[in-house]
Amino acid sequence: NGKTIEITEGYECTPTTLNVAGEQEITVTYGGKTATFKVQVEKITIDRAVIEFKDKEVIYNGQPQSIKVRGTLPEGVTVSYVLDEGINEAINVGEYRVTAKFAVDEDKYNPVEDMTATLKILQANPIVNPKYDTETPIYVDGSLPEISLSEGDTEGTVRWDEYILEVGPKEYGWTFTPTDEVNYEIETGIVTFDVL
User: Fold this and answer.
1) DSSP letter string over the chain?
2) Span 148-168, average pLDDT
3) pTM, whole model, 2 decimals?
4) Which of 72, 137, 182, 186 is deepest in the core (most CB within 10 A)?
5) Could you tell me the strand order of the sheet in which 11-14 lies?
6) pLDDT given at position 2
7) Rg (CA), the chain
């Protein structure tokens, strides 16, 4: 009769969930009558605005580093991470391009484009606690005491900088050179000796 009525109960609908993209057929039964019609279900497009994949800076610690996607991925979407070709792990100091690759349930989602970010690993400050004799007097015609690293220090060598002894209190410098010069910084320091 051309009238439109809203039905909220007393009917049967098959299927009740449209969870696969493409053309689907829906059957509705109400009041002893059955109607069948077709609908086109579109794939879901992931909103990239809710996914964050940003550049990152970290300090070298001898362990593999990474960047992770931040945000909640819906069910049926997973992500894996790939470094530049030929690189398996980002451990040493340097810059690495990280690519986030998304895999989706192709029945439900449109493809998600790769995302890239830069991971920068910076040199670490070494642990350096030089030890030397502070009890024995130092004379102007002598030399500074032997200097060495303490147990637990970063592996490397420590030496006095070039110096000329002068009578009285004066600052003398030392330089630590790490064995691993790629990942650790060179460290310097000063000590005051009262030369006789």
Assistant:
1) --------SSEEEE-S---S-EEEEEEEEETTEEEEEEEEEPPBPP-GGG-B---EEEE--SS-B----BSPPPTTEEEEEEESTT---B-SSEEEEEEEEEEE-TTTB-----EEEEEEEEPBPP----B--SSS---TTS-PPP-BPPTTSPSEEEEEPS----SEEEEEEEEEEES-TTTB--EEEEEEEEE-
2) 97
3) 0.77
4) 186
5) 11-14, 22-30, 33-41
6) 62
7) 35
- Cross-strand partners of 157: 177
Token readout for 46 is: 């992931």
Cβ neighbours of residue 177 under 8 Å, at least 6 residues apart? 156, 157, 158, 159, 186
pLDDT tens for 103-117 read: 999 888 999 999 999
